[in-house]
Amino acid sequence: xxxxxxxxxxxxxxxxxxxxxxxxxxxxxxxxxxxxxxxxxxxxxxxxxxxxxxxxxxxxxxxxxxxxxxxxxxxxxxxxxxxxxxxxxxxxxxxxxxxxxxxxxxxxxxxxxxxxxxxxxxxxxxxxxxxxxxxxxxxxxxxxxxxxxxxxxxxxxxxxxxxxxxxxxxxxxx
Amino acid sequence: xxxxxxxxxxxxxxxxxxxxxxxxxxxxxxxxxxxxxxxxxxxxxxxxxxxxxxxxxxxxxxxxxxxxxxxxxxxxxxxxxxxxxxxxxxxxxxxxxxxxxxxxxxxxxxxxxxxxxxxxxxxxxxxxxxxxxxxxxxxxxxxxxxxxxxxxxxxxxxxxxxxxxxxxxxxxxxxxxxxxxxxxxxxxxxxxxxxxxxxxxxxxxxxxxxxxxxxxxxxxxxxxxxxxxxxxxxxxxxxxxxxxxxxxxxxxxxxxxxxxxxxxxxxxxxxxxxxxxxxxxxxxxxxxxxxxxxxxxxxxxxxxxxxxxxxxxxxxxxxxxxxxxxxxxxxxxxxxxxxxxxxxxxxxxxxxxxxxxxxxxxxxxxxxxxxxxxxxxxxxxxxxxxxxxxxxxxxxxxxxxxxxxx
Lengths: 174, 406
What we know:
Radius of gyration of chain A: 26 Å
Strand content of chain B: 25-35%
Largest sheet of chain B: 5 strands, antiparallel
Oligomer: heterodimer
Low-confidence stretches of chain B: 7-16, 21-30
Distance between the termini of chain B: 60 Å
Low-confidence stretches of chain A: 1-51, 57-74
Number of helices of chain B: 4
Structural class of chain A: alpha+beta
Mean pLDDT of chain B: 93
Strand order of the largest sheet of chain B: 2-3-4-5-6
Radius of gyration of chain B: 22 Å
Largest interface: A-B, 105 and 113 residues
């Protein structure tokens, strides 16, 4: 088992920049300012702030509203242009760019450990397995088969027995 | 094994984990770890601050992220800070960059006019706000006995936030729901690693989707959502478990027949029995998709590691939630549940949110065994006996703390 320091990584949040668009007709803005915040219950301070933001945003706008673009992107959106931001009626939504950390947590040595290390981390990191309690061989068999047949994990059928054997005998810290 | 492997953001298959020594040593855990009190282990988890827009979180799984809120956070107030709010993803292909200018939300299916809405379009709709608890279906799964497979959460896979957004009904009305619609299915930008695996999508019955409370939120506690909590748009389903709160919503599909997707038909099923309770090993019971939440209450200022002075006054406090309705009352017991007395309730921030409770007592010579119990406005009461099911869902047993005399 490696140390408690088991993940590394950095987070970068990029954002900022120019106004994107803020508009709508005057009547739409008036209607919004009057009827905007529908309270399901009273939250005075919070409502007040939102209302103030909306009122402050109800200023004449000059930029034209862009037409909705075509179909939604089927995959993660492309890198945001610098300064990407949507602002409308007092709410700013800024572009976000981050990086997820990775895991270097190791599997305890034992028969089948390499098999598990080579097959089981395509879809999830090792912690998913290492944090499980002691489970029966039947339970582990069902879990591994679910990974293969339902979640389509790229694992060869002939490796299932070895993987299950390791998982069912894996040491679990009490 | 069918389907190709996505490699859009990392070479997943190159990430084979190493194999290390078999020795499991408590000393291996540095001070930046926490013991969750999971009977039978493994009990220790690292605390990590390595995730973007997140502070110190209990690391349940790095990829895809499962991050639990350290329980002391719930003592700080009824609203859970965004940077401590729990995180749960099913699939590991999650965008790391999102541009709000080009982000679009499709509304399609059994509608009069399919839409592709920009965030500016969404922000122009009437706004609603709501405090609501977002709780994982499997919150507290690690406390089940006998133990079950799955994310081994303690009690911190939940959080309460003030959500601001637009009614799902208003978004649907932009497209015009046709007569005969029965369900609304939502999808987000996350994707499975293997493209033939079932993409994570969830659906609500059409009347539920249009009830005026279900919303698409773009703000959480006054800020845009952290990416890991579903930026830029997340479904909020007040009173229902988090599995329905689809993150990074990009596609809304109106269905004219029931959703028979894996994630509705096979996964997240509970026994259709009182409190989703069955005996371990029991079979043959009817099942249904998990749905509304049930009442819970917790101590936040004491744990089993706390001590009390004999004869000294003890101030207890915590949080309670009604589930899919408000908290009617919180009671405490110091005689193992024989008698109960009402706790004092804090401000009502909304039926679907957490409610603060406080209570006073005096420690006896043997210390103090304290229990807390929530009754919701539907007169549902937390049970003395824990429920059990194979999914590890819907735990809501009365919580007990044992404080030793010092």
